[in-house]
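Internal QA ticket QA-208
Title: Verify multi-chain structure generation after dependency bump
Assignee: T.L.

Test input:
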Amino acid sequence: MNRRPSPILEHGIVAAGGPLLVFSLYLVFAGHNQPGGGFAGGLVAGVAVVLAWSAGGSQTVRRIVPIRSSALLGAGLVVAALTGFGSLFAGLGFLESGYLEISIPIIGKIKAGSTLAFDVGVYLVVLGMTLGLVRALGEDRPDEKGAM
Amino acid sequence: MSVVGLAVAALLFGIGTYLILQRLLSRVIIGLGLVSHGANLLIILSGGAAGDPPVLAEGVDPARVADPLPQAMVLTAIVITFGVTAFLLALALRSWLLTGSDAVEDDLEDRRIAQERPTVEQPTVDNDMHEEVTAP
Amino acid sequence: MPYLLLLHAALALGLVAARRRMGRWAFVVAAAGPAAVLGWVVAMAGDVLNGMPYEEIVEWVPSLDLVLSFRVDPYALLFLLVVGVAGTAIFLYAVRYFGSDPRVAAFAGTMTAFAGAMVGLVSVDNLLAVFVFWELTTITSYLLIGYFDHLKEARSAALHAALVTGAGGLAMLGGLVLLGTEAGSLRISEIVANPPAASPTVSLAWALVLIGAATKSAQFPFHGWLPGAMAAPTPASAFLHSATMVKAGIFLVGRLAPAAVASTGWWRGSVLTIGFVTMVVGGWRALRQNDLKLMLAFGTVSQLGFLFLLLGAGSAELLFGGLALLAAHTLFKAALFMVVGAIDHEAGTRDLRRLSGLRRSMPAVFWSAAAAAASMAAVPLTYGFVAKEAAFDGLLGTGLVPIMAAAVASILTVAYTGRFLFGAFGAHLEGHEPAGQTAHTPRNSLLWAPLVLAGTGLVLGFFPALIKPLVAQATAGAYGVEGAGKLVVWPGLVPALGWSLVSLSVGSLLVWRKEILDRATDAVGLVAVRFPTADGSFRRSVAGLLRFADRSSGLIQNGSLPTYVAIITLVAVLLPSTSLLGGVAGFDLPPTGEILELILGVLVAVLAVAIVFTRRRFAAVILLGGVGYGIAGLYALLGGPDLALTLLLVETLIIALFALVLRHLPAAFTRPRTPQALRALVAVLVAVFVFGGGLLTGAARMDAPVSDRYLQDSIPEGGGANVVNVILVDFRGFDTLGEITVLVAATLGAAGLVLPIIRRKENAT
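Actual output:
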């Protein structure tokens, strides 16, 4: 399985991965009112990571997503937890939702609030998990050489 | 709850259990996946009758939607199963890399203990017999 | 009182910590514990006897109602007095008994801990606290009895005592908890004031408590551990068996008897029977011993039987006599144990057939032994006599059989007392090598500690009024009866005196005409030897238990993971099944569902079955993915688009992760080495259980689903139309936070399992 990342495949993957990422974000933002949400969004983004791996192995994944998975995991947890405490400071119960109405192009008017931030945290954790797992299990075999 | 759904759940449980009882870790993981599917399906089924998606858009009658609570639970369970499966896969891979097999071998320590006969300490002096004896 | 307990704990820990520097003088320090108890008793006596019990509450976990509530009324005060007096004397005695060995100081520490546990046990008012101190005495007594740990007998005796009293303690814990639940309070004072009404549960509770108390107080048939415990050093024997450990059970039955008699019909009869059988068996066995200490041990069993029935029978008259006798027993039994220790120390043996001429060589020891023995045999003008008169007086009210049984036991007591005294201080028997010619009277606490206790017995024999207020107040506190009995030097010509004199003279006759006794004991011994002894039965049951544990764990824990999983699964299936089957109330077959559902169901079933038969790893994974997609389809049908979406994605990712791992593994599964029929059977049972359980529980819904509220509140409260999402991020958001934490942990764990190995291999190449 000692394949060189083919530039064409790599570009193709990036081309496909972009829309997937956009779709995943859409799921997060729309999830409050339609099917979707942080879990589904994070998983879609995870599919994009898997596609990147299939293009060129762990090296390609590293090149395209130059972030450590632990950073994503940590950031996601912090965001989700802070949302809870944020509600607490705002005088609401832990994780009770508060909102603002904002309008975003294409999706339209949504009520963005603590729940959205919480879902973003979930999204980050799920994406970080997929990335971490793909990196751990997809690490090239010793004979393939290549550092993490 | 429908008979078909229930039968599918039961079948998944049975086959999953059979696979979990195997020695190869990769089969065990697949079995665990099947049992999880069965359990999730059972939770959804016991939530009540099927209905419309619990998304309260215009014109949706709240009385006709499916129960959202089991769905939320199962959604959580699906993702957790994902994490557990991934963890077990890492375990199988580690086992393979270290021992060249993903079979779960017998615990040698347990086996040794099971075969060992315990030695019961019997007191030599029986000071409770009617014969006249002197305590130590 | 809390400080008193802290003092004991500090002394115990300090002595164990400083054992290398202390040696046997540690006992002088340790004596501060019982001496402080004694001081406390003297200081508090005025208030407590004037109807103001000492009460204090130390909060521990108030929210769980776990408080240390102390309550010392005259009844508890009597026990504290006993612990304090005997403890101080015995601790000082121990200084001279032991040689210099670093372990001695640790032993002193353990004794102090034991004394502290006993003090706590009698002065707390909460059943659970009683249990904690109860178990503390069990544990420390294990250490004390097993002090000579190079001797097999000591180890096995310690284990015997710990197992019997520990098992009894467990039974008692069950009883105490039941009792607390039924009575609605864990406070002893409240339970005694308002006993629970009679019911089978309450009866069970009392029975369990009775078992616990009987094991602790070495009552028949649990008495076997007490003679074995003679393997302990003599100071420990004296302390455990005269003043403390065995008195714990008696303390508890005496404390709870008023309530137990009020809420059961059988308590009094059982206590009387147990007590009488124990009295007679113990007295009889004492007669047959040649080891002075063992003789005292069986004598203790006998006396304990008497105390058990007197305190436990639940009548004011008997309690009065019992408490008087309890104080007497402590004085003479502690003194006699210490005398035996002194003899052992000086003559090097305790075999009464060999001891010779000690009366001349140790006259002071002889006189203190004689004084204590006279009290034990209830010779007039001793305190033992005064107390026994009170006990007989109480028993006379119970009927003819009890008083006759008590008289028989008293005759035996007189007989073995005589045997003790003449055996120890008379000439040696023919055919036995004499011992003790070199003995001389010790000039230290080996002599005066027993002397003081025995002398106290004589003084109280002339002035019983010294202790009467305590006994009378304790009785009055338990039953609200004043003047339940009297303690007088000479009772006058009353029936109880008659019984006392009859016992005394018949007993003396048996001592005088030894051959009658020998012939009788030989005859009975021929029959009795055919009956199992308590010690033998105990060892047989322990050996049987070990064999059973060995076989069963060899069968269950055979080292094979599939076996473990199968056992767990079977238990998880069979236990609920039995209760489900018991509750079948009939059910309707649910609807079949839509045709599309049927198609998807069949598809999933076919794929799942195929997994079992494929031998290719990757094929199995693809089939698993297929099952997942099928289920996702079912979710979509059943009204869960979120689920369908998520499951589709998860299945895709799982297939991908499998693919990553399977790159390394061989393509095909190895064939199983063992037959699969049993596994298939377990699997079928699980499937049947799920199907049947689903049918039954599906038909058993009673309450409206909670999600009705979620549906109502979703938009106004959660601000979202997708109720599932609102539940996840808002209503049950805290759960989701926990879940993503699990995901983080799983990821880090998986990476940690694999990456180090891969890196190591990389470095190696």
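Spot checks passed. Confidence is low (pLDDT under 50) at residues 122-136 of chain B.
Status: verified.
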